[in-house]
Design brief:
single chain, 69 residues, alpha+beta, transferase, Bifunctional phosphoribosylaminoimidazolecarboxamide formyltransferase/IMP cyclohydrolase, AICAR_Tfase_dup_dom_sf, PurH-like
Length: 69
């Protein structure tokens, strides 16, 4: 909520209207929670992590129960 407020203030501070900024915002603030570190694949020297949205109600691949198998 605070990030959205300050994000909307940036164009106003620089004298731009929302229309002048274009169809997409200049800044995009997204908050995710790290669910797990990922195992290496083709590039074993690179690290990776899997992130999910915090309060998602609908089912998705990210929130499913892997079960067994």
């Amino acid at each position: 909520m605070i990030a959205n407020y300050f994000g909307s203030m940036v164009p106003a501070y620089h004298g731009e209207s929302k229309e002048a900024a274009g169809r997409f915002p200049r800044t995009l603030n997204l908050n995710f929670i790290k669910k797990q570190d990922m195992r290496y694949g083709e590039n074993s020297h690179q690290q990776a992590a899997f992130y999910i949205e915090e309060n998602v109600k609908e089912a998705s691949v990210a929130t499913r129960n892997p079960g067994s198998g």
